[in-house]
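Two quick folds needed for the group meeting slides. Do the first one here.
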Amino acid sequence: MMKSFLFLAVILFLSSGVYGYTKSEITSWCSQTPHPQPCEHFLGTNPNYGHIKQKPDFVKALLKVTLERAKHAGSHTFTLGPKCRNKHEKAAWADCLELYENTILKINKTVDPYKKCSQVDMQTWLSTALTNLETCRAGFAELGVRDNVWPLMNNNVSYLISNTLAMNKGGNSSYGAPSPKNSMFPNWVKPGVRKLLQSSTPQANVVVAQDGSGPKCRNKHEKAAWADCLELYENTIIKINKTVDPYKKCSQVDMQTWLSTALTNLETCRAGFAELGVRDNVWPLMNNNVSYLISNTLAMNKGGNSSYGAPSPKNSMFPNWVKPGVRKLLQSSTPQANVVVAQDGSGNYKTIGAAISAAAKRSGSGRYVIHVKAGVYKENIEIGTKLKNIMLLGDGIGKTIITGSKSVGGGSTTFKSATLAVVGDGFIGQGITVRNTASPQNHQAVALRSGSDLSVFYQCSFEGYQDTLYVHSNRQFYRECDIYGTVDFIFGNAAVVIQNCNIYARKPPNKTNTLTAQGRTDQNQNTGISIHNCRVTAAPDLQGVSGVKTYLGRPWKQYSRTIFLKSNLDSLIDPAGWMPWSGNFALNTLDYGEYMNTGPGSSTANRVNWKGYHVITSSTEASKFNVGNFISGGSWLPATNVPFTSGRTDQNQNTGISIHNCRVTAAPDLQGVSGVKTYLGRPWKQYSRTIFLKSNLDSLIDPAGWMPWSGNFALNTLDYGEYMNTGPGSSTANRVNWKGYHVITSSTEASKFTVGNFISGGSWLPTTNVPFTSGL
């Protein structure tokens, strides 16, 4: 495996050319970054015959040097295994190896000369890369072992990534053709066609020592942390490679997602050593600059379109990145299984692990359904990076149960404590219960860990105490699931939407519950936890128990982001709503929001007074965190057949009537008839939306233009607009004076309601051969 690690990191560099720049160029450009010192140092040590003339040249230079430093850091980390003194250091170190590898793959994807990837892709993958490095660091801190290995791993990679994220923020990406002027999509998205994501990384031959067999590790704790790092680095390289894969078309959202994953992997690596208290031996030898480099790239890639796919269908229960075939599969009462797992021997395999091993040997990477019949399966399952498009289909919550008991208190890292761990892209879980039965006294004990990009969990249950659901990284969607826990039991740094789920707080050992602990470490990462239309209440063991305070969340990392949208919060929620992590840490930089929640615990009157906390009052702001926008769900969830709500329910619905370049006049039977008043419209519902663009309005239109439905109903909440209409009925001088009515004067605002933008017509109308005008 290590050979693969080095080969993957080097192979793209051989064709990348040399780089390095004049001192004046370096100083000028690096001064614009948040971390100019490492920027100047590493760019200055690379010879080159070219020049940085424009911002895209600088972004490319940052990406290349970031990748080089990430590769160097990953290689260095691998050599630190023998320096681990105990199982805690080894556990944290092992996390870091895996996280660094994934980080390198993410960055590689952004510089692949044969790949067209958007600015959103780049920002996504750089966010992932930076999250990986922070996860690596956190592992040592969690296990209390920061004094030995971790200092030896310190580097500037995080700073370099942060610089790239900052420089790539906003504007158009230099990778790939720009999107059509009036289209909501990058122009590589062909009508009716969207290729499945596939990794083209070379065959890996690096040895991943999950049992902690690194020669420099001194004990089982160091070996455990080190083994985690091997796995995490491998995944990091794969993720960064996806950003530069010459055979893969990736969007800016993809890139930001995968770089966020790479960064999360590195942070998880670090965290493993900390959790097991072995940071003083192997971890310091693994310290490097990869996190900074990923952070730089994330910063440079940030901005542009937030979604790379089509909007979600109006009444769909799923983001539309869920492909139609997968959607059909999930909605089928009896999906066709490739293999069956049954403890009584009536299937192909008796254990889930055996079925997963067999799936790894299958040809191709199409959807592979494993039906797990009812039963209690005492297994720890890991579905690795190469196992794509796996579906675990159970017989229902409480019937098909996967259970384990690993924990930090028992000598595992948080990362490796998961009963079910999923990394391969496109995973789907349905109808299963995943438990971690470790007691609360054993601290972190994960039931499910997902780092699977575009993963879906439908009608599942996750049961544990502290750290039950580890939404580690990448894009994830949970629908109609039950989640049980006590402390930080929904945590991680994925871009995740949890929708129509039940969140149950259990009885804690210390009188305090925290539902979430989001782990965004870089402000340019496109990650966070969005909880939409869920029910938050007490589990049976907490009902009737007094003296327990339950909070919506606390900031695990500097830029922690968690939003509760239109959820029902029961009376167990403390009036303050949110809890600090430690002192004033992150209170000014976090992003916590609440929008139109209901229930006795939803009042925001006595909420915390932090700079980073806000009550969301704008539907536009709230919609940033729905399935369609936050995880680009409209482009991939439809294929899974999992139901989802994409966006604007009530004022959040992305619906309306746009009348463009039309003629409004009297029919023959109305011509010459007097006393008839004709209006452009009236508000049937609370958030009625109608726009007239560049249309010819004849004299039959009443000067008031619009008519109320009943009294003042909806006059403040509707959205009625007119833009550059003509004809005798087009004058707006005597129009209604309602709060919701406006004359549109900006072409930018008007363009939101064109065919290209309002219904994403550029992506599907061409196949109909019906003529259309995409823009104004």
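Then this one, please, same format:
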Amino acid sequence: MSRDDQALAGQLVGGRYRLISPVGRGGIGTVWRVRDETSGVELALKLVPTVDHRGMPSPNKVGRFIREAQALIKLKSPYVVEVYDQGAWRGPDEEDFVYLTMELLQGEPLRERLRREGRLDARVTMRILSHVGRALALAHARGIVHRDLKPANIFLTGATDKPVSKVLDFGLVKSVAAPLATIDPVHTEHGRPLGTPYYMSPEQARGLDTVDHRSDLWALGVIAFECLTGTRPFTGQSVATVFSKIAQGEIPLPSQHGDVPPGFDAWFTKAVERDVQQRFQSTRILIDELREVLVDATTLSRSLHGTLAATLSDLSQSGATMTFLGDRTLRIDRTPTQGASFVGRKEQLRLIDEAIASHCRVINLVGTRGVGRTRLARRWAESRSPEFPGGVWLCSLDHARDADGMWRQIAATLGLRSSDRQPIQRLGRALSSMGRVLLVLERIEAVRQPLAATLAQLLHLAPQALVVVTSDAPLSLPTERVLKVSSLSYPPIGEVGDLETLKRYESVELLLRRVMAFDRSILMSPDPPAIAEVARKTGGSPLAIELLAGQARGRSMAAIAQELDQVSLHLGGTQVMDAEMVLRNTVRWAMSQLTVAAQTALVQLGVFRGRFTLAAAEAAVDLRHLADAAAVADLVETLAARGFLRVGRDVAGDTRYDLHPVIHDVVGEQLDRATLADGSRLRLGAEERHGRYFAVLGQEAALEALHERGGFIRRARYLEDAEDVATAAERALARNDVEIGVACAMAASAVEALLGRFAKASQRLVASANAP
């Protein structure tokens, strides 16, 4: 800048903003207090010259300014400084500037607070970092990495009784979503570290291009260390010394530098892991784990056993509710579908777009089970996810049996604390705070009525929320658009032609794709008439095609066509008699192709209500009565590979399996009829083993562990197992198995309490206490 800052006082920037006085200086410009002459409101204005101190053009400074403006525009949050306007201005002496107007904050940077007080107590530190964590979680969900997080860029403002921490200075942000070739080379500066040395991660210190959101998590760890101890963990007389300590020096223990809460040493060590894969992987997990360390240890150590009142009090007072299970991203693994192929549906995808453009708030994809409603909803959601900055949330309700189950699933998906009172209002406020958000609710048949009542209110509370549901009937909502989802097209009887001709039918295209995933030899000697017949006998059901493909290895299409049940089609006609019957017949046929051990294992897996782990499957399935039966783990993998089990991962990273509702129904029918050689019912034994496995979650040690280090992951697993835990409790109490029933009821009450539903938790405990 060629003139003193104060000399610019009184100038009118952009024909609107009157410069009053400088309030701060940074690396690229000056922040001014200004008055908006159009409104009389005082704002902050960052003024950045486009040339350096030598009068030479400075693309680096201008680039930083542009990136900061773009980042702040994307990040609307109470924990990020709010930006209002940006532009260019030619000042006195023909000097060129760019500027950005922001809210004028009253308070002080965290750096000044630390200089004055030295160190902060655990409660204040937690409040500050919780706010910063929310800002970073939003930024990371938008694909933005801050890269210069430090106490000077955290501003403490707000009233004394309601303090707020805001993140400043996004001048070094990096968009991790942008292709490398599109990143400004001045911004990237390969080999040169960008940021403030004391808070840089090792990858930043080395100037790597691969810096991602986990560098911000390192910086949060360093800031937490400084807040609690009053010192920085990595210091030195030169930048080179600091970088050396960050890259290869011994990681200091906070407890050797100050009086810190128990567990903080371990938390800090993980926060500043040099291996980014071993570091905390998301802001939400880092903050939740920090909260466990910094809360009152006496609260955490209380036992969940004892009186019913004490149990609920512990869960309520500890604050150990499920909050923000994951980032606002499209989470396909929450409720995966069999296979990965998607064909056709162009017209239906277009109709969804058309409905959204017509301001419909609820898109109801109506069709019978197995026709591909969920695949269609997910494909559209995935393609449109950038249009929903608040996130795309997928919630499967096929395991929910009633309104309580519906609320458990929704709360767990969104990572929200529900409530005994006004749960719809809580959900509405949460969705409203996200801005434009998409909620995909899948397979809602069992909870259609309570869901319709919920959505009727929710649409008013969250005006920018859109909802896509998959169902078998309309919800009768004012802004609902019902779109019929039919089966995939398939060749009519008598259709002849070569393979390429037949592939114009969607069911043939999908069948070929899925069969080739198991056995590519079908292309060596294709049999178009047999392929057409098999596709026709599936009735165009993607699920039926998936199951057929899973049994195709080493078999001809002609043989499969001959084996399929002829009753699934009208005699001599081209119309499917009943889509559900076709699908059920296909499931039964596919099961008949399994080994006896695989069939027996699949039938016993029918005792599960929700998604289950391999360990749970091994506990529930008993094959000791079968000679030379394969291991349960191997059979589970076989069933998944053949399309009987859906596979995904939960919040803890554990692999989970579940059955499509139609498969579950067919398996359940067989489980009801199955008996062992001694005449005992297979279901009774499977249910007892299922209950015994989940009863462990209700034991004292397991419940107390919910409040210990790592409790975040444990609580996430409890929510994942919620339906099975509740079902196990009901089954056990119904058969007068008090030991398992009470233990499972304890675990079920813990789930309800974690969701903030303390009255429901109390009801479960009272019911178990009154068991005979």
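Slide caption for protein two: The chain has a mean pLDDT of 80.
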